[in-house]
Design goal:
The complex is a heterodimer. Chain A is an alpha+beta fold. In chain A, about 60% of the residues lie in helices and about 10% in strands. Chain A has 24 helices and nine strands. In chain A, α2 (about 25-55) runs antiparallel to α3 (about 60-80) and α19 (about 480-495) packs parallel to α20. Chain A is rod-shaped, with a radius of gyration of 55 Å. The termini of chain A are far apart. In chain A, about 30% of the residues are buried. By secondary structure, chain B is of the alpha+beta class. Helix content of chain B is about 35%, strand content about 30%. In chain B, α1 crosses α3. Classes of the chains: A alpha+beta, B alpha+beta.
Chain lengths: ~650, ~160
């Protein structure tokens, strides 16, 4: 039953909207629907009356009704196909015009046709509009007045009294139609203007919401996003259709859980009574926040966002939160970059000034040495070695060696860094070492590697500015002696001593390639020792009747398939008493009966890893590992080390290495 | 790089292998990994890290060990690195990352979904240019697997 009514309604809708196109305005559409409805209703009535009249044998009336029916049918079809509303309207109105006049002319039962004709002004004014409708109604009025008042024209006699009633009620209907149409038109115009204004306002809002560079949206009490939000919001979250999405769901997994919880608590506060809005602004957890959007391949896109929230109060009830969000990624990243760049540039400039004064070849050697030290330690880490103390000691020795070279080259930035790592190492060396210590120092090694890489980058850059000729010249100089000279130059200033370096009997070509680094390390370490502990300051030397200027003699010889290196200074020499006193203060020697040790043994203590006689720890001395490092490297290379000394006169180290 | 970011991953790795696979890994000495060097791993899972430190954590297995873990999980015997193995390694890393997350709660760190690379001497796209990689080997009765970490501290 319901479906039957539905199909009737659909049929009715289809008929009455015949000829309605998209080009028509609201007003015109209504007129078309009215025209079609009148047309259809008229057709049904005409058909029915035509049948009735035919049965009553009033053939003329039946025929004219039928022909009117046909014209209306034609108008409907014409309207449906051609969509010519005005022409169809005129056809309908003119048909009704003549039909009604004809009906008035025939009179009908008890002159009842005079009732039908009253409806004409309604139809004419609604279908044709005000002016044409008025003209048609005027013509119609003259015609019906003639038919009603002038006798003998119509088939029936209406009489004056009846005629006045017909015309009077006609005028009443006419005025009602006129007033109604007028009011309707005014309302229509006001409505259209209002809706046009609204549309214009909406268009502006839309263009703001589409183009504004901030995400603007409303949150309801369950913290869902409202239907009107700015386009940028979709862009920020990389998602479409955010209506009714929970803000917290959007943030989840992109920010820290703690911040997420804080955000929920914070936003809930907006809906509570008696909130301090200024306080709310201050405690906003999303004031500046990093969002990490997970990308397909283990990567992230990080966005820095700035959220603001404000309650919207209507009728004293807080019903919404107005939220804005701004993507400040570029600003933040730029600021971070600048900051990082500034730090980096400062560091690089500092290093650059140091590097620029050093022979590139020596820098190269420094880098190669440092890398080989790191490789050696790393190889130890990769090996089966389980003695953590031994490993940490090896790391310590490597760091120490690299640091020594860095100081030698005047790379103060790098050496400071290495020095602090050395400090860390010497702190734990005495303790029981755990796996975590090992991990920590592996991380430190990685930092040193980074540091060396930085120096390498700088050196490469410097080299591109220097001509290759110069480099060649530098390489030809004796790098081993050069290294010692630099140590002497730097340290003699530091310690206020004066040194005469004699290397006439040193033949650096006799040093085998594989021993170059060992020999260099040894020479540098011994030079540093000599300047730290051996050679006295000029005043002291004068009072001891020594030359003011101290002498260091480095010589080499090749005999019996062995390379012998001698390093001799004319300083304090070794003092067994001082060594004994010093040893007594060191925990590692507690268990030794130091007093009964012969002098030779006491002198041997200087090679112990924990021994150092320098009073203060500075970058260049007092680490105690130096001599120990030399001894172990020499022995590792299958060589031997001897020390000869006369108290107050000299100290000589003799190193032999197999060829 | 700070040890505090790495520790939770080590703990989680040991716990997960023990709890889910009844394999008790022994942590070995850490060392610096050469990014370009050939390696003996057959399948690696990579997790990205962002936040106050940036970088990646990688767990690499030799085929044999990955196969044993897979057959312990699925109950089927495994001949080669197939989808089951990839899924298992992905699952292992997922659980490790999930467990590690608990230990990382006090730091502002985000962890990405894992991605899997496999094949002989497969290449891992390490993030960061100069930053060195710390490798932490774990010894098990079925071979050695590796946890590698690369992290850059963000300048704050």
């Amino acid at each position: 039953m319901a479906s039957f009514f539905n199909s009737i309604r659909r049929f009715w809708n289809s008929i009455t909207t015949s000829g309605v196109g998209d080009a028509l305005s609201m007003e015109q559409r209504r007129r078309v629907v009215f025209l079609n409805s009148i047309d259809l209703a008229g057709m049904i009535i005409l058909l029915a009356f035509s049948v009735v009249n035919y049965r009553d044998s009033k053939l003329l009336v039946a025929a004219s009704l039928l022909s009117a029916f046909c014209i209306l049918l034609f108008a409907l079809i014409y309207m449906r196909i051609k969509k010519r509303f005005i022409l169809a309207g005129y056809i309908v109105v003119i048909t009704i015009f003549f039909l009604f006049l004809f009906l008035l002319y025939t009179g009908g039962v008890e002159k009842s046709y005079s009732l039908w004709i009253q409806t004409f002004p309604l139809v004419a004014i609604f279908i044709l509009g005000l002016t044409p409708g008025l003209i048609a109604t005027g013509l119609y009025f003259i015609c019906i007045s003639c038919l009603v008042f002038i006798p003998q024209i119509a088939q029936v006699e209406y009489g004056f009294t009846f005629g006045v009633r017909v015309i009077g009620s006609f005028i009443l209907v006419f005025f009602f139609a006129l007033f109604y149409e007028n009011i309707r038109r005014q309302t229509q115009e006001t409505l259209e203007k209002l809706s046009a204004d609204l549309m214009a306002a909406k268009k502006q809002t839309d263009s703001i919401m589409t183009n504004v560079a901030e995400g603007i949206f409303l949150l309801d009490t369950s913290l869902n996003i409202g239907s009107e939000y700015s386009k940028e919001l979709e862009h920020i979250f990389g998602m479409k259709n955010l209506e009714n999405q929970s803000l917290l769901n959007l943030l989840e997994n992109k920010i820290d859980n703690k911040i997420l919880t804080a955000t929920k608590d914070y936003l809930d506060m907006f809906f509570k009574a008696d909130i301090n809005i200024q306080l709310l602004e201050e405690i906003n957890p999303l004031d500046r926040v990093e969002l990490h959007f997970i990308e397909s391949d283990f990567g992230f896109i990080t966005k820095h966002l700035e959220f603001t929230f404000a309650p919207i109060i209507r009728e004293e009830k807080k019903i919404n939160i107005l939220a804005t969000v701004k993507d400040i990624t570029e600003e933040v990243e730029l600021a971070n970059k600048l900051k990082a760049q500034e730090t980096r540039t400062k560091k690089q400039m500092e290093q650059l000034f140091q590097i620029i004064n050093v022979d590139p070849a020596m820098l190269n050697e420094f880098i190669l040495d440092a890398e080989s030290e790191l490789d050696n330690v790393n190889a130890l880490l990769k090996s089966d070695e389980k003695d953590y103390t031994f490993i940490v000691n090896s790391i310590y020795q490597s760091v120490h060696a690299i640091k020594g070279n860095a100081i030698l080259l005047g790379l103060s930035y790098t050496s400071k860094k290495l020095h602090s790592i050395e400090d860390e190492l010497s702190e734990v060396r005495e303790n029981r070492l755990s796996w975590n210590d090992l991990l920590k120092f592996t991380i430190r090694l990685s930092e040193i590697k980074n540091e060396i890489n930085d120096v390498k980058d700088l050196v490469e850059r410097v080299l591109t500015f220097q001509s290759s000729k110069e480099i060649k010249k530098i390489v030809q100089k004796d790098l081993l002696i050069n290294a010692v000279e630099r140590t002497v130059n730097i340290m003699s200033k530091e310690r206020g001593v004066e040194i005469n370096l004699v290397t006439d009997n040193f033949n650096s070509k006799a040093v085998m390639a594989k021993h170059r680094k060992v020999v260099k390390d040894i020479l540098i370490q011994l030079t540093r020792n000599s300047l730290s502990h051996g050679i006295e300051v000029p005043e002291a030397r004068s009072s001891l009747a020594k030359e003011k200027v101290g002498t260091i003699i480095i010589s080499s010889a090749v005999e019996d398939g062995k390379f012998t290196l001698s390093f001799k200074d004319d300083g304090r020499g070794l003092n067994a008493e001082t060594i004994k006193e010093k040893a007594k203060t060191i925990a590692a020697f507690k268990n030794m009966d130091l007093d009964s040790l012969p002098d030779q043994k006491l002198l041997g203590l200087i090679f112990h890893p924990r021994f150092s006689t320098a009073k203060k720890t500075t970058l260049s001395a007092g680490r105690g590992i130096g001599l120990n490092l030399i001894k172990s490297t020499v022995e590792k290379n299958g060589g031997s080390l001897r020390v000869r000394s006369a108290r107050g006169k000299y100290c000589e180290f003799i190193i032999t290495l197999p060829l | 790089m700070d040890i505090k970011y790495i520790d939770p991953f080590i703990q989680a790795t040991v716990n997960v292998l023990d709890e889910f696979f009844n394999v008790k890994p022994e942590v070995q000495k850490p060392y610096l990994l050469d990014k370009d060097q050939e390696h003996q791993w057959d399948v690696s899972a990579i997790i990205g890290i962002a936040g106050e430190a940036k970088g990646a954590v990688v767990i690499s297995f030799p085929a044999e060990l990955a196969g044993i873990l897979t057959s312990r999980l699925t109950g089927k015997s495994v001949e080669e690195i197939d989808e089951d193995v990839i899924d298992t390694v992905g699952e292992v890393v997922n659980i490790v990352a999930g467990n590690a997350k608990k230990g990382l709660e006090e730091y502002r760190l985000m962890i990405s979904l894992p991605s899997i690379v496999s094949g002989k001497n497969h290449k891992i796209a390490w993030p960061g240019k100069n930053a060195p990689v710390i490798a932490i080997p774990f010894k098990t009765e079925f071979g050695i697997f590796n946890l590698s970490v690369i992290l850059e501290n963000i300048i704050v």
